[in-house]
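To: structure desk
From: M.T.
Subject: fold request, one chain
Message: Could you run this one when you get a chance? Sequence is below, nothing fancy, just the single chain.
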Amino acid sequence: MCIRDRWKHVKREARRVGKTVHVGLVFGIVVEKNHELDPTDKRRKYKGRAVFQGNNVKDQDSNWAIFQELGSSPATMDAARACDAYGLFPGHAVEQSDAEQAYTQAWLIGVETWVRLPKDQWPDEWEGMEDPVCPLYLALYGHPDSGTDWEKHSQAHLTSVGFEPMENWPSCFWHPSLKLFLVVYVDDFKLSGLA
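Reply: Done. Structure tokens follow.
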């Protein structure tokens, strides 16, 4: 159960103390993965995810929220190709993996953000409430700052195990003792080095 309040109370308190808060909608999306396969193929499955509607965010004064969107630096295609090339050296290999539920591993940093849920997703105890909202604590897909927060989170973990950021190559890392080259593109990790 989340701590919740009515949006009118949250924005009134923000105005009283002179701070900026944001509010937006969280909604669900569902996609069918591998839909091109035969309907009996077990690799066909539905995948659902909660998403923040980042294109419709307001502040406590009902103005459009302003985001910097400058912090995230995704890897380039050249970096991915360089990683592949290094993996083709004799005795080397390339592996690729996705981070599971990547963004929600990171805390949302920055302006305090509150979310509305679609009414069909309200818990029973919200019935009859006027405009309930919950604080958003984790970086959620769709939030304009989530990419930056996830990037900082993942880089902190990578450097804690010996990876070093590569100069002038955003989201690329070198592990000097293991001689591993790692490229991170959002939540995709490509690693090459000695097999």
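Reply (cont.): The first helix runs from residue 7 to 17. Let me know if you need anything else for the meeting.
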